[in-house]
Design brief:
With 209 residues, this protein is of the alpha+beta class. 37% of the residues lie in helices and 24% in strands. A hairpin with a 5-residue loop joins β7 and β8. α1 packs antiparallel against α2. The longest helix is centred in the C-terminal third of the chain and has 44 residues. The chain starts with a helix and ends with a helix. Keywords: Membrane, Transmembrane, Transmembrane helix.
């Protein structure tokens, strides 16, 4: 048999395991994404990079969090995110120009209603995330809110939105049967080739028996 044909058939045989293994993995991950369980559950803990009082202005760059990718939380956890108002300012340029904009509170997607700081027993409620905004437009932040005792700032990196979970979950659930089908096709072809090889071997050896 041609060596290239042998290698091709070996690769097809491997796809029996790749297809079925991929089917199980894609199905598991897709189901976890759609149901928001396991590693795709809503974030319930965080590590505060800085804490600031209501009305105080904090320089985001000094906290180590990348501006434009921040999550702001308020304590106590009973604070209503709708009452929170945050102001973001850009850095001051040599011309003295500084842009300012208001960030209204809205609980970010991908976070639990109440989150706990890993280094603190207090509970916080996430009030807004600025992921996707220009990093030069969120250099300074200050916040106020009804009943807020303090605000915490951390990175929004790694927090998965509901849109991402839904899109990725549906994609994996659609991919799972495709992988299963490829695994079944590889199994069918491998068995067919084995039967043909056995028949050829039998017909060749028959006269010599």
């Amino acid at each position: 048999m041609n060596p290239l044909v042998q290698r091709f058939r070996a690769v097809v045989a491997m796809w029996i395991f790749v297809g079925w293994g991929g089917f199980l993995l894609a199905g598991f991950l897709g189901l976890a994404l759609l149901t928001q369980t396991g590693p795709f559950a809503a974030a319930s803990t965080f590590s505060a990079a800085a804490e600031f009082a209501p009305g105080a202005e904090i320089k985001v760059r000094d906290t180590g969090v990348r501006p434009g990718n921040i999550l702001i939380l308020a304590t106590p956890a009973t604070v209503d995110p709708a009452t929170v108002r945050c102001t973001a300012k850009s850095r001051v340029y040599s011309t003295g120009e500084q842009r300012s904009r208001e960030l209204t509170g809205a609980r970010p997607e991908g976070t639990a209603a109440v989150m706990r700081d890993r280094g603190d027993a207090r509970q916080f409620t996430p009030v807004l995330a600025t992921e996707g905004t220009g990093w030069m437009e969120t250099d300074f932040v200050s916040c106020t809110g009804a009943g807020a005792e303090a605000f915490a700032l951390t990175t929004a990196k790694g927090i998965q939105s509901d849109t991402f979970r839904l899109g990725a979950g549906l994609l994996l659930m659609l991919l799972a049967p495709v992988l299963a089908g490829l695994g079944c096709l590889a199994l069918y072809l491998t068995r067919k080739w084995n039967r043909e090889a056995a028949l050829r071997g039998g017909s060749t050896s028959w006269p010599y028996r």
